[in-house]
Structure formats: structure tokens, C-alpha cells
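WARN retry 2 of 3 for item q-0093 after timeout on previous attempt; input resubmitted unchanged.
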Amino acid sequence: MRTTISVIFCFLFSVSITTAQDRITGEPFATRSVVLAQNGMVATSHPLATQIGLDMLKSGGNAIDAAIAANAALGLMEPTGCGIGGDLFAIVWDGKTEKLYGLNASGRSPQKLTLDYFEKEGMEKIPSLGPLPVSVPGAVDGWFKLHSKFGSKPMTEILAPAIDYAEKGFPLTELIAWYMQRSISYYESKGFPNIEDTYIAQNGGQLPNEGEIYKNPYLANTYRKIAEGGRDAFYKGDIAKTIGTFIKEQGGFLSAKDLAAHKSEWVEPVSVNYRGYDVWELPPNGQGIAALQMLQILKGYDFSNIEFGSAEHLHLFTETKKLAFEDRAKYYADMDFFDVPVEELLSDDYADSRRKQIGERAGKYSAGEISAGETIYMTVADKEGTMISLIQSNYRGMGSGMTPPKLGFMLQDRGELFSLKRGQANTYEPGKRPFHTIIPAFVTKEGKPYLSFGVMGGDFQPMGHTQIVMNLVDFGMNIQEAGDAPRWDHTGGASPMGRMTEDTGTIRTESGIPYSTIRGLMDKGHRIGTARGIYGGYQAILWDDENKVYHGASESRKDGHAAGY
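OK item q-0093 returned
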């Protein structure tokens, strides 16, 4: 009897999902149905963080309160991807003013570290680990910028759930436990100080496995100081002094003065229209406009006659990516130091001229690559119509390996993304923000909010954003299907870090891309590699203005969770 019921259930489930996909490939993509709710929605990469955000909404908080609370929890629960040692970017649709706001909360390089230092040391690139790639962590200031403009609850209440979990502990999820076991042992092997005390000694002398309880009382204490003392408790108090002293002891340059001088900035989001949908990104020093450049080129093709996942689809996408990433390498940088021609790069005329360069075979462009890194993306919406698209990261995994004593977090290594070649847009300078990979996204339609979303994964992020938009607009998927559909990326192309090669690069595909597509791409001269697992994760909230309902989706490749009420 049980077997019969299971067979019937599986058959019905398969039919219900596949029917929506028949006109695309005939194969189901969605791992689950879309989450629907009227009053609010939270989608993060960790179920407990999602629940914290939802509790904040249900207790009277707004989307910004819930986002800060959930992000603080993720810094504890997913330290392999984010934390207050890193940076933050956000796009906010304010339900009251009915307009978009952009926040750049990325930190700057140390004032006392110069390009001459790297040249005298004979370095051709900034190291991935240690004190030299450490830039000012901007996340905490980003929280308070968001809170002062939009927040409603006091920060003591907003940070209380994360503090409670840090003190009492929580069970590690499957993916994060695997990442932490791998990362902590690696940092220990490098001999970095305070790793054992921060991550192991506080847990009985052994790093927990999946399902075992993990605590971080040092981080609880740091959060409590921030909650009670505000952003200055982090940037001007004992925390800043501890960071500055520690980095100096390690041979680095980031100082308490660098932290005290830090400030986040409100910026104007920029957009292009893709078949009636306005897709919004933040201007550089991030790479968001690469997604907009790609969409500008791709909208010149009629995808109603091109099958999803076909060789023609991936070929046009990849050649478009190569062109956009060439511009990314040449122009994207801190706009306080370099005049990035954003308007020209996003113009229809420029897209038309770039599109004309795409032929039937794989083109050769200067090649280089930026590491995938680790990141969290999350989005929240509330009953007042406010929606926030927020992304936060330490860059390469847990970060630089630099863990200040008894603070409970690791500092980022974003400074690695500067170029050390003189005369380039992204060349290292003191007090400059490095080129950034993490990008939040937003979509409006006819002046109303439509979609808040993001896709993680270093270089992959503009490609991921473009794939999601195309899946929704060109291929008619819902927001869960759009995230679960098989993905692909292209490695190669010029790098903002100054690396160049002459090569067509490599396309890497997930298993859902059929062999006929792989064969077709090879016939067009593309080199094909194996999937490398950088395609997650994705979260999204869509606003159905007709029915006044939020649609939520979360990444199936990670531990993520979307929930509403």
C-alpha cells in the first residue's frame, strides 16, 4: 500500500511541475513550489536566519529591521560566507516614498599602505590571505546607515536573537558544517593566530559536525557592544583599537584611524530596460552594471525562437559575457578615483556596436579570472511594501585568516581585488575601495516593485543575474524554477586585477544542460569544463501587484529557506 501511494504521489508531483515546463525543455526544474504570503516575506541562506527575520516582521518590525537581524544571525550561523569583518551592499524599495535607494557599504584600503610598498616587496598581486588584503569592514556601518534611514525597532532588540544564539548555540547545517571543517583546518595549517580560540576552544575543544551545537560567545559580546554603543562602538571604540593593534602585530597596515574615518554612501541605482522590465544594479566599485551590459546586448536577440539551454542560447550568452567583462576589466573601479563611463556603457548605441562583434563561433578575448569567493544574499519584504535586496561577504571563504583576539569574527580579504599594475582604473591606492564582486539586484515594472533578488558566486554573479532575468522574462519560469534551472558560467576574459591572456575561456555547465548542447558548443569552438559548484545561492521575492501577494524562493543548492506570513 505504501509503495502504491508513493508511486501515485511521485507521478502527480512530476506531472504538476513538468506541465509548467513543457514548452521549455519538458524537464522539471523546481525543487519545490513557490512560497506565497500577503504580509511579509523573508528569504535567506539559512532557515534559522529566515525565522529570525520573520519573527521581527511579525513583532512589528519592518523589512530593514528584519534584514539587519537576519544578517547578524548569518554572520554567526554562516561565518564561511559573511560576517561583520566584511562589506555590504543593498538596494531598498521604500514603500512610503515609492522609490529605490542604493547603499554602498564597502570599506577602503589602509591610508598608510602604498603601491610603492608592494613594488618594493616584488609583489605582482596582493596576497589572498594575511594582513595585506584586509580593507576596512563596512558591514556594521551599513547596518546603521540602513537603520537610521528606514529602521523602526531599536538595535538592542534587532541584534538580540543573534546574541542569544551566539551564547546558547545552534546546530550547524550540513553545508556550513562541511565548509567550516574544511576552512578552519586550512587556516590553522597556515598558523594564523586566534583561530583555535575563536572557533574551537569555545566549543569544547572540537569543531562541531553537522547537527552538533556551535557557539560563539566572543561574537555575542561584540554584538552586544554594537547594539548598546552604536556604530561608533565598532569603528571608534575598543573593537577598532583591538583590530588595529592586531593587524599591526601581523605586519599589516589597517589601523584604528582607518576604521574611524570609514563611512558608507547612499548611491543612485542604475538600470536598463529588458523587454518591459527595468533591471536595477548599483554603480561601480561593484560589478553590477556588467549584468546590465549583458542584458542590453542580449535584448537584440529573439529568444522566443531559441530553446532554453540550447547551444545557441549558451553561445550568445557566453559571447555577450566576454564583451561585458572586457569593459569590466578596463573601466570598473571606485568612482571616487576613476571616472567610470556608466551612461555610455549602458547605452543602446554602445550595446548595438558590441553585439555586432558576436559571430557564429567562439570569439577570442583577453582572459583572466577572479576567484569565486563565498557570500550570502538575502531579501526581505514587509506589509508596507518595503523590500530590501542585501548582499554581504568576506570575499574568499571566511576571509583573510586575520581573526582579532576575542572578537568572534574574521576580517575580509577584499583588498586582494586591486590591481598592482600602474595606470589602471582599479590600481591600488590608499583610501580606495577595491573592485567588488558582490551585487544586489532589483526589478521594477511600470514604476512599481516587481522583484528583489540576487545570486552569489564571485565572477558568476552578473552571469547569474542575467540568467535569472532571462529565465523569468524570456522563458516564462516562476521565481523558484528560475533559480533551480541548470546554470552555466564562463571563466576567462580580462580581469580588473590586471591579468590578461589570449584565449576563448571555458564554459562550465551543471548536469541539467544536455549533451546535445555541449556538443553544439564544441562545434562552435568553445572549450567545455566541468561544473565547479559556484552556482549557489539565490534568493528572491516577487511582488504580485494584482493580487497583493509576495512570492518567495530560495536556493536549492544550499541550506536556504523562504518563509512568509
